[in-house]
């Protein structure tokens, strides 16, 4: 499935990436594939979890994804854009690279929820830039 894939983790950078990707999808007439990924080992959705049940991780990630989409919808950026969503479990970089095989463009934020504030790009972003099968756009927080 071609289109624009955007990775969302709930961070401000990923919401900026989602806004940019929505505007680009509208301009191109492309499908926007919004992807959120969680790891059973590390949950970075901003919601505290007191369990290791993967269904709880998936539910929290779904809530985060819905909130990010609602934020972008409130700006009017999703008007006229066909949007699909998916929540996946695994390594974010590897799953985004897999998605890039069937995409026209991959969009990510410059940094996610990792703790290294001084870095220009986060580890997932760096991995994606170096391994993607399609062009990558890295969006800085606006």
UniProtKB/TrEMBL annotation:
Q: Where is the UspA domain?
A: 4-140
> By what name is this protein known?
Unannotated protein
């Amino acid at each position: 499935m071609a289109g624009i894939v955007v990775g969302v983790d709930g961070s401000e950078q990923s919401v900026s990436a989602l806004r940019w990707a929505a505007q680009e999808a509208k301009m191109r007439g492309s499908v926007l594939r919004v992807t959120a990924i969680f790891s059973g080992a590390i949950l970075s959705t901003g919601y505290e979890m007191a369990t290791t049940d993967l269904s709880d991780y998936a539910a929290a990630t779904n809530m985060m994804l819905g909130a990010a989409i609602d934020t972008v919808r409130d700006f009017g950026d999703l008007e006229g854009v066909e949007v699909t969503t998916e929540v996946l479990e695994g390594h974010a970089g590897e799953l985004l690279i897999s998605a890039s095989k069937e995409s026209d463009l991959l969009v990510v934020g410059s940094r996610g929820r990792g703790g290294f504030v001084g870095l220009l790009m986060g580890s997932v972003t760096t991995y994606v830039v170096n391994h993607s099968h399609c062009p990558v756009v890295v969006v800085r927080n606006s």
